[in-house]
Amino acid sequence: MDIYFEFISNHSLLFVALLFVIVLLLQSIFSDFTRKYKLISPSEAVRLINREDAVVIDTRNKGDFKSGHISDAILIPLPEVKDHAEKLGKYEGRPLLFYCKSGTRSDEACKTLSKLGLSNVYALSGGIQAWEDASMPLVKN
Quick one: fold of 37-133? Predict the structure, then answer.
């Protein structure tokens, strides 16, 4: 046991870095268990759209939306998601599928709406990039 204390005292910066990594890993694992929305793959998203009539919501900006989006997607940029919570409430009973460029903004949108009480919320894991990588079609204006 003394050998561990000696290592920690001689390499305190390395030990602090190890503790930091462990905390980040635990935080990641804990957030996966407490998430109130589901992350889904592009193929699962297609199933959700086709079988359950999901409402597809793009959280990118207008320029990105025009450059290519999923068919029948509604544009609601991330800063406006909270303001549109009531509007999205009219789709109660239908899955709400959010996506962005890489998955970061859609995660944030799902967190916000889950906190406001909306259920049946999904985020496209990897965003539109994963959609394109899976060779799924895009609508371009």
Answer: Oxidized Rhodanese; domain 1 (3.40.250)
pTM more than 0.85: no
Strands 38-40 and 74-75 turn out to be: unpaired
Q: Hey, what are 111's tokens?
A: 């967190």
Domain boundaries, the chain: 2-33, 37-133
**75 in the Ramachandran plot: left (φ > 0), alpha (ψ -120 to 50) or beta?**
beta
Predicted confidence pLDDT, tens digits, the chain (141 residues): 888 889 889 999 999 999 999 999 998 888 777 788 899 999 999 999 999 999 999 999 999 999 999 999 999 999 999 999 888 888 888 999 999 999 899 999 999 998 888 889 999 999 999 999 999 999 987
DSSP string covering 67-104: H-B-TTPEE--GGGTGGGHHHHHTTTTS-EEEE-SSSH
Q: Are 97 and 57 in contact (CB under 8 A)?
A: yes
The DSSP H or E segment spanning 68 is none
Question: From CA 110, how far away is CA 107, in angstroms rounded?
Answer: 5
Task: Name the one residue in this structure whose structure tokens are 């759209």.
Answer: 49
